[in-house]
Structure to design on (575 residues):
């Protein structure tokens, strides 16, 4: 009975791990990509139910304190599975329409999601390392999914080389922390008293590894290339689920393993947050390809999230969790709309200039895109606004006023490039006169649900923010 | 103290790996340099683990070895795909995606 209860604490990991193997076998024996799709959707929903159950339940550690469940960790699992579920919903149509419906996508997505779930629940450096690596290795393969397209393979190569490079840093950081504190368990690292050169070198290298994974400037070079080259729904998955997982793991490491030295590393995060916000937003301004623009915008979002991490208070951490939730909803949505446009092969719909007049041709898609983009700008009443507001408010409470001023100015820049897409959608004349396809029911349903959730959590954030605040016993 | 020699050696190996990744142009050599970085870390872990008489570091080495193997498998597959598309594994010639 004891062991069954322990298994329930990691039920999302177990279900998704099994699902990955099952879907792989299903493909081998039936060769029908549709079945793989429905099976992975089913398992994803089951895992999401498990994660929601855990997040409502108590917190604690299981498996000899290797994994942490409830609270932040299980909410991280919810984030990952939300991103996975919606990008799966969009994948089938997109891949079918572009003529690349390969069943391996689903097992690879599930294996990557398995790694992410392991990562968000890690309470031990070995689990953390395994999670980050199973996630990354599956994502390298996913980026190069269309192996006869030069861009896709190039994206995979760049992702792989920089990913393998960053793994070295991460592992070296773990090794040096182990050497200076004598343990690999996160709480025991916090207890160690010796904070010598080796400790700080370890923290620095560990941070470098994490900065690569969350694509903080100056470790962001891979992000635009990979996001542009990968199939769009895979990009949606990478941009949301893997980034949320890396940030949740970062929060867990900061708050559980390194709480004593927050004074010192706070300044490091401060500097990197400034660079990430400013450079991410400035480079997004000059992009002509919408996937690249969204990639730079995701770098900028990582910067806003790092403002929250730099604040290091419980309120800031729960604000970051809220921000990640909003970020997941609006980014999957925006990439989903781009993927819909891309299904029309006679025109390159990754170029923003080709979006002229599309807003009137397919009014619903235009409205959905507007909702997601307005939410990314941070305009009320969308979820993105509440996320940004909470993060900045928490940072001000901790006295990081100059950082917040830079953040607000940087996000003012972002208005230009988000709204320029809308200008093309609604204010330019369409000259091609092409006919748009009708998206499938599941596809439009997924996008509409995402938009409704974005609006709902923007209008009525209290429920979720109070709940997230309760992880750190914060009242809003 | 003996431990310092081991740590110094692995720091040197790690730096060689980093410099290799940053300066070489052949994708396979870059992959080898990344593997060198991981193995340098393994040396650190094993020596620290032996010094402290704690087994966890050595267990992490087992995992990192298997991760490195999986990574090499996927990486070489990607490099083969690159070679088929570009007939070259020189990363300076693979530049469709820029800015």
């Amino acid at each position: 009975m004891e062991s069954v209860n322990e298994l329930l604490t990691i039920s999302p990991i177990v279900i998704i791990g099994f699902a990955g193997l099952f879907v792989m076998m299903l493909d081998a024996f039936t060769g029908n990509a549709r079945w793989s799709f429905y099976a992975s959707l089913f398992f994803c929903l089951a895992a999401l139910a498990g994660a929601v159950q855990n997040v409502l339940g108590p917190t604690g550690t299981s498996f000899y304190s290797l994994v942490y469940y409830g609270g932040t960790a299980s909410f991280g699992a919810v984030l990952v599975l939300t991103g996975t579920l919606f990008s799966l919903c969009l994948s089938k149509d997109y891949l079918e329409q572009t003529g690349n419906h390969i069943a391996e996508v689903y097992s690879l997505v599930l294996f990557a999601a398995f790694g992410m779930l392991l990562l968000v629940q890690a309470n031990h450096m070995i689990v953390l390392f395994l999670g980050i690596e199973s996630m990354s290795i599956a994502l390298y393969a996913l980026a190069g999914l269309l192996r006869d397209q030069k861009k896709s393979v190039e994206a995979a190569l760049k992702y792989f080389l920089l990913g393998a490079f960053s793994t070295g840093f991460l592992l070296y950081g773990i090794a040096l922390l182990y050497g200076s504190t004598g343990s690999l368990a996160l709480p025991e690292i916090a207890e160690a008293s010796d904070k010598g050169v080796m400790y700080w070198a370890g923290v620095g290298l560990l941070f470098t590894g994490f900065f690569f994974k969350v694509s903080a400037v100056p470790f962001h070079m891979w992000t635009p290339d990979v996001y542009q080259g990968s199939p769009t729904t895979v990009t949606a998955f990478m941009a949301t689920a893997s980034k949320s997982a890396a940030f949740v793991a970062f929060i867990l490491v900061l708050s559980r393993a390194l709480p004593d030295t927050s004074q010192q590393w706070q300044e490091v995060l401060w500097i990197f947050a400034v660079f990430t916000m400013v450079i991410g937003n400035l480079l997004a301004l000059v992009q002509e390809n919408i996937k690249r623009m969204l990639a730079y915008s995701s770098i900028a979002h990582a910067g806003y999230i790092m403002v929250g991490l730099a604040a290091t208070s419980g309120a800031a951490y729960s604000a970051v969790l809220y921000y990640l939730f909003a970020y997941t909803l609006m980014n999957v949505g925006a990439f989903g709309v781009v993927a819909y446009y891309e299904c029309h092969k006679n025109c390159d719909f990754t170029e923003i200039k080709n979006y002229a007049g599309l807003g009137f041709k397919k009014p619903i898609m235009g409205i959905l895109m507007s909702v997601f983009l307005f939410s990314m700008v941070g305009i009320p009443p969308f979820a993105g606004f509440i996320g940004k507001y909470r993060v900045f408010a928490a940072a001000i409470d901790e006295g990081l006023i100059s950082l917040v001023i830079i953040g607000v100015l940087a996000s003012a820049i972002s208005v230009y490039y988000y709204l320029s897409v809308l200008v093309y959608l609604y204010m330019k004349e369409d000259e091609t006169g092409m006919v748009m396809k009708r998206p499938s029911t599941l596809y439009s349903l997924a996008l509409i649900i995402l938009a409704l959730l974005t609006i709902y959590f923007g209008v009525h954030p209290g429920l979720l923010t109070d709940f997230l605040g309760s992880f750190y016993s914060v009242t809003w | 103290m003996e431990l310092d020699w081991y740590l110094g050696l692995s720091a040197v190996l790690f730096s060689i790996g980093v410099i290799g990744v940053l300066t070489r142009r052949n994708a396979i050599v870059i992959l080898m340099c990344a593997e060198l970085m991981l193995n340098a870390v393994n040396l650190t872990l094993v020596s620290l683990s032996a010094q402290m008489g704690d087994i966890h570091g050595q267990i992490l080495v087992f995992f990192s070895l298997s991760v490195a193997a999986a990574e090499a498998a996927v990486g070489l597959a990607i490099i083969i795909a690159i070679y088929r598309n570009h007939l070259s594994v020189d990363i300076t010639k693979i530049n469709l995606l820029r800015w």
